[in-house]
Amino acid sequence: HKEDTMSKRILLATLSMSLLMLSGCGSSKPSKSTETLSDQKYSTKKLPKFYLNPPTSADYYYGVGEAKKSSPAMAKDVAETRARREVAATIETKVSSVVYDFMQESGIGGDARALEFNEVVSKQVVDQVMQGCKVIDRELMKDGNRAVHYVLMEFPLASAISAAKSAIRDQEAMFNEFKARQGLDRLEAELESLNT
After folding, report:
1. Which residues, at least 6 apart from 103, have a Cβ–Cβ distance to it below 8 Å?
2. How far apart, in whole angstroms, are the C-alpha atoms of residue 160 and residue 87?
3. pTM of the model
4. Considering only CA atoms, which of 190, 185, 192 is closest in space to residue 10?
């Protein structure tokens, strides 16, 4: 029964992380694919302050993106994707490190299944982060005949922790091969260290 419970928890965690990723990481205004450079309002500054010095917070992860394209809509989309990737890479590194360290301390870190577990959990977290980011600032500039779009995105630390826990629960069956329930509880507690 403990193995079934653990399997269900891992499965629940994975699905929750996937749902978080799908929850939306874009701005609320759709881009117009037919916009031209002359249709846009451009800043005259050289670089946005948030691009040069992104904010830091104990409660959020931040990412910046920049793209220079002939289409303002394409520049916007590419800049947002780059900012999402920056946020996701930061969170993936932290989650993967916590899971890996936990597996090593538990004596199962070198096992191929442990590595697979880490990869699956990390990927699920990244998927959720990519969809759950929120644009908090943006600036459109002009460079000759090209639009330059800068964007700042954020993702809450609490959501990253929740996504990681959810992914771990979703993979509970795999984790059962490693440790009993107490191991999963310890790993979830270790994930709380992401905010330090």
Report:
1. 109, 111, 114, 117, 118, 178
2. 10
3. 0.67
4. 185
Tens place of pLDDT for every residue, the chain, 196 residues? 544 444 444 434 443 443 333 333 433 333 444 444 455 555 546 889 999 999 999 999 999 999 999 999 999 999 999 999 999 999 998 888 888 887 777 776 666 777 787 888 888 888 888 888 999 999 999 989 999 999 999 999 999 888 888 888 877 766 666 555 456 667 777 777 776 6
The amino acid that residue 43 corresponds to is S
Question: DSSP letters along 53-110, please?
Answer: S----SSEEEEEEEEEESSHHHHHHHHHHHHHHHHHHHHHHHHHHHHHHHHHHTT-TT
Whole-number Å distance between alpha carbons of 126 and 135: 17
Contact residues for 140 (Cβ-Cβ < 8 A; gap 6+): 40, 41, 42, 43, 72, 75, 76, 147, 148, 149, 150
